[in-house]
Each structure stands twice: as structure tokens, then as C-alpha cells.
């Protein structure tokens, strides 16, 4: 393995701070806006007219949980196309139900709903906190919202002792309704959860009306391994890609138009107003075409997208040394082996031979190794925002990701070298001049 240099250590330290401070998609987007503002990006509102100027940098959010940032390039958009990177802000978790209060044997618990395809076993015996968004009315009755974070361990889901379940190590299954409600405290009577939230986070006279809150593991990101070659953290899928792509966009020059899109709701299918299957990105692309194409015309958008490329960044399955047979032979990505091109002929990933070749070329230009993944034919394959976005926009797309272990656990693992490597590749991608096309062969 290559030696971890000072630049990589600094990158991973910033990555750890970002992940630790982003327990929910709302917090992730808020922290991304801070990074972008500090780098000179200007805030836009969807409800207002835009005047996008070449050479300037902008961002716009929707619902506080999805964000699109872009550099308005100096080149004519119809001639240069768009360099686009995508990721998602959400991760599998335990969401608090609307009327969650439970009192069992003098234990106050909250009912939770499993969000996404969470691996549930690792949630037991962890120190859990709670974060998300509150909607409340102030003393005048006006509706407002705010992000909250208990920022300390307030709950736990204890395992059932082996003495009471002798088959636990052989065939125990988890009932998501009855087995995972977290314990918050001991109590003689059922508390009102909204009142608890108001007492903790609101001023007198303000009232909690609703919320979107999830539990998270308070253990922070850490570098582990005898040689410090591993990076462990919650929500690596997919906050790692959000941070990596944000840093790449910040480091991009202003000659080409570059776009970063980070959608919410990928883990549950992307079908929402803020998801990849919604209209958010298409509306921003329309506005860019109107402002950055020199000639007005309905054909401009088609010309722009024909010369564009989307790199969908979502982590990939590294080979697990204890379960190597779960991987297709010859497609066993390893941690610190470089970013992974993800392929699926059934279009669960959007990669094709042309888009994969462009990415391989980019990696070679910045001296970054590249790996490939395809799932075993007898196993199902996950998906990403890549195929959804490709279908919505008609943009050439490929799916890539940093290899990781323990995907969808409440604590995941990747290599220390790969995050900075992918950011370097994406920066080169954003700065690559000319239309992103492969010449058509003459087959006559």
C-alpha cells in the first residue's frame, strides 16, 4: 500500500469532521453550504429569477436535504457541455415515528421506522443520539423550522442476553417492529415527546408541530489498523461521496461548467420532489442552458447534454476476506485499491463501455489506480442515482464508487487513500476541456 502522505491525512481529517457533523441529510446539506460559501459560491433561490454569470459559482438547495452547486464556465455551454458529479445525502437509519411514545416496564421508548435497507444487527448496544429537523410555531403563530442535534448519547437498544435466547448466534432474526425501539429513560408515566423536544430546543411560547428525526451512533470517525490504512465511520454511504465531490468542485477552475448534485431519498428509491427521480436537477439544467448558451433555441439543451457526462459516485462493495465467495471472480475490489467502476448489464448501474473508458482515461491522467465491480449473476444488485438521472436527463453516465466494507451498517469501513484519490479524479474531470465525446467509428 502507498504511504499516507500529509495531504491525504489532512483530507481525511476534514472528511471525519464533515461526517461527524452530519448525522442527517439536513445537517449534511447545511455543512456543504458552509464549505461552498467559504469557497466563494453564492446562494440562489428557486423562487427567484436567476442571472447566472460566466466565471461565477453558485448553489441552490431544496427542502434543506438536497443541493446542487455549480461553476458557470467561461466556455459556451452548447459547445463544452456539462461535467456533472452526483451523490446522495441520505443513509439507512432509524426514523422516529409521528406518535412514537412507548412505556414498557417503566422504560420510556420511542417507536422507530427503518429507513432504507439498514443492516440492523449493528444497531444493538450502541450509544445513540437523535438529530434532524423540527417544524414549530413561534409566539406569533408563524411556522418556522430548525435543525436539532442532541449531540450526546441519549438512547440505546440493548441486546437480549444469550441466556434468554440460546439460538441467537445461529438463527436469530430481528423484528423491526418489536425488537428495536430504543430506550431513552426510566419513567413512571409516558412522556410527551414533542414537549420533551420543545423543552430542549425551543424558547418559551414556541411549540413543536412536527419533525423528521433519526437516531445515529455517536462514535466518531476514526483511522484504524496497525498501519492506519482504514477509515471507519457512520454514513460513509454516501456522505463520503458528497464530501469528495464537493472538494473537487471547490478545486475546479472556471473554464468549464461543472455541476454537483447531491439528492436525498436515494436509499428509498429516489421518487420524491428532492430525489433523483424528481425535477430538481432538470430545472437547474434548463436555467443553465438559458443563461450560458450564446444562442437561444430549443435544441440547445440536447446539444449540451450530448457533450456532457455524469459521474454518479456511490460507494462500491470491497471484497470481504471472510466472505470472498460472495464476489464474482476477477471483480474483487480491495480497500486502498482505487475507485471502482460499477457495471450491471441490467442497468442497475448506468456505466457503458464509452463512459467507463473516459473514466479510466481520467484516472490514468492523475495516476490513480482503478478497479471494476460486477455482482455475481445469482445475487441481486443495488442501484444508485446514476440510472435514474440518466433516464431523466438523457445524459451519458457512469457509476463509480470508493470500495468499502460493512455497507449499510451503522458503522462502515473504507481505505484511507481512496477518498482523496477520487477527489483528484473528479477535479481533473471538472477541468477537462472540450466536449466529452468519443469519436464515432466508421463501420461502413
Short characterization:
With 444 residues, this protein is an alpha/beta fold.
Provide keyphrases for this structure:
Aminopeptidase, 2 domains, single chain, 20 strands, nine-stranded mixed sheet, metalloprotease, 444 residues, 11 helices, hydrolase, six-stranded antiparallel sheet, metal-binding, aminopeptidase activity, alpha/beta, Aminopeptidase i, Domain 2
Report the count of strand segments.
20
Q: List the domain count as a whole number.
A: 2
**End-to-end C-alpha gap:** 47 Å
Main pleated-sheet profile? 9 strands, mixed
Q: Which secondary-structure class do the elements indicate?
A: alpha/beta
Side by side, the strands of the main sheet go: 1-2-3-13-4-14-18-16-17
Round the mean pLDDT to the nearest integer and report it.
94
For the record, the CATH class of the largest domain is: Alpha Beta
Weakly predicted, low-confidence segments: none
Radius of gyration: 23 Å
Looking at the structure, the CATH topology of the largest domain is: Aminopeptidase
Judging from the principal axes of the Cα atoms, what is the shape?
globular
**Given the structure, what is the number of helices?**
11
State the share of residues found in helices, binned by percent. Answer: 25-40%
Going by CATH, the architecture of the largest domain would be 3-Layer(aba) Sandwich
What this model shows, in words?
The structure is a single chain. With 444 residues, the protein is α/β, with parallel strands linked by helices. The protein folds into two domains: 283 residues, Zn peptidases (Aminopeptidase, 3-Layer(aba) Sandwich); 125 residues, Aminopeptidase i, Domain 2, CATH 2.30.250.10. The chain has eleven helices and 20 strands. The strands form three sheets. The chain has a nine-stranded mixed β-sheet, with helices on both faces. Strands 8-7-10-5-6-9 form a six-stranded antiparallel β-sheet. Helix 9 links the parallel strand 16 and strand 17. The chain is globular, with a radius of gyration of 23 Å. The mean pLDDT is 94. Its cofactor is Zn(2+). One of its GO terms (molecular function) is aminopeptidase activity.
Amino acid at each position: 500500500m502507498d504511504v499516507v502522505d500529509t495531504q491525504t491525512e489532512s483530507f481525511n481529517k476534514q472528511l471525519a469532521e464533515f461526517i461527524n457533523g452530519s448525522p442527517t441529510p439536513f445537517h449534511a446539506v447545511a455543512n456543504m453550504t458552509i464549505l461552498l460559501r467559504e469557497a466563494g459560491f453564492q446562494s440562489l433561490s428557486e423562487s427567484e429569477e436567476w442571472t447566472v454569470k460566466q466565471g461565477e459559482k453558485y448553489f441552490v438547495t431544496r427542502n434543506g436535504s438536497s443541493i446542487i452547486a455549480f461553476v458557470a464556465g467561461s466556455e459556451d455551454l452548447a459547445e463544452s457541455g456539462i461535467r456533472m458529479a452526483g451523490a446522495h445525502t441520505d443513509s439507512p437509519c432509524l426514523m422516529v415515528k409521528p406518535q412514537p411514545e412507548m412505556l414498557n416496564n417503566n422504560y420510556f421508548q420511542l417507536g422507530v421506522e427503518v429507513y432504507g435497507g439498514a443492516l440492523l444487527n449493528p444497531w444493538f448496544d450502541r450509544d445513540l443520539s437523535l438529530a434532524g429537523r423540527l417544524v414549530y410555531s413561534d409566539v406569533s403563530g408563524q411556522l418556522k423550522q430548525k435543525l436539532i442535534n442532541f449531540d450526546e448519547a441519549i438512547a440505546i437498544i440493548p441486546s437480549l442476553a444469550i441466556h434468554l435466547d440460546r439460538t441467537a448466534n445461529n438463527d436469530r432474526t430481528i423484528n423491526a417492529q418489536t425488537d428495536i425501539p430504543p430506550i431513552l429513560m426510566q419513567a413512571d408515566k409516558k412522556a410527551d415527546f414533542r414537549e420533551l423536544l420543545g423543552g430542549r430546543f425551543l424558547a418559551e411560547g414556541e411549540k413543536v408541530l412536527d419533525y423528521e428525526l433519526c437516531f445515529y451512533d455517536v462514535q466518531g470517525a476514526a483511522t484504524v489498523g496497525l498501519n492506519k490504512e482504514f477509515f471507519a465511520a457512520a454514513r460513509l454511504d454516501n456522505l463520503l461521496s458528497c464530501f469528495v465531490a464537493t472538494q473537487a468542485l471547490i478545486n475546479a477552475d472556471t473554464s468549464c461548467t461543472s455541476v454537483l448534485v447531491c439528492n436525498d431519498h436515494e436509499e428509498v428509491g429516489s421518487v420524491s420532489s428532492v430525489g433523483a427521480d424528481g425535477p430538481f436537477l432538470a430545472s437547474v439544467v434548463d436555467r443553465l442552458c438559458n443563461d450560458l448558451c450564446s444562442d437561444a433555441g430549443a435544441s440547445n439543451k440536447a446539444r449540451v447534454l450530448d457533450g456532457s457526462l455524469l459521474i454518479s459516485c456511490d460507494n462500491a462493495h470491497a471484497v470481504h476476506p471472510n466472505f470472498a465467495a460472495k464476489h464474482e471472480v476477477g471483480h474483487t475490489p480491495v480497500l486502498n485499491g482505487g475507485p471502482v467502476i460499477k457495471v450491471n448489464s441490467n442497468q442497475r448501474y448506468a456505466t457503458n463501455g464509452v463512459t467507463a473508458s473516459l473514466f479510466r482515461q481520467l484516472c490514468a491522467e492523475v495516476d490513480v489506480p482503478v478497479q471494476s465491480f460486477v455482482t455475481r449473476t445469482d445475487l441481486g444488485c443495488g442501484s444508485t442515482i446514476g440510472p435514474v438521472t440518466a433516464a431523466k436527463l438523457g445524459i451519458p453516465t457512469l457509476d463509480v464508487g470508493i470500495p468499502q466494507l460493512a455497507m449499510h451498517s451503522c458503522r462502515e469501513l473504507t481505505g484511507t487513500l481512496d477518498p482523496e484519490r477520487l477527489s483528484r479524479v473528479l477535479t481533473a474531470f471538472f477541468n477537462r476541456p472540450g466536449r466529452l465525446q468519443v469519436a464515432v467509428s466508421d463501420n461502413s
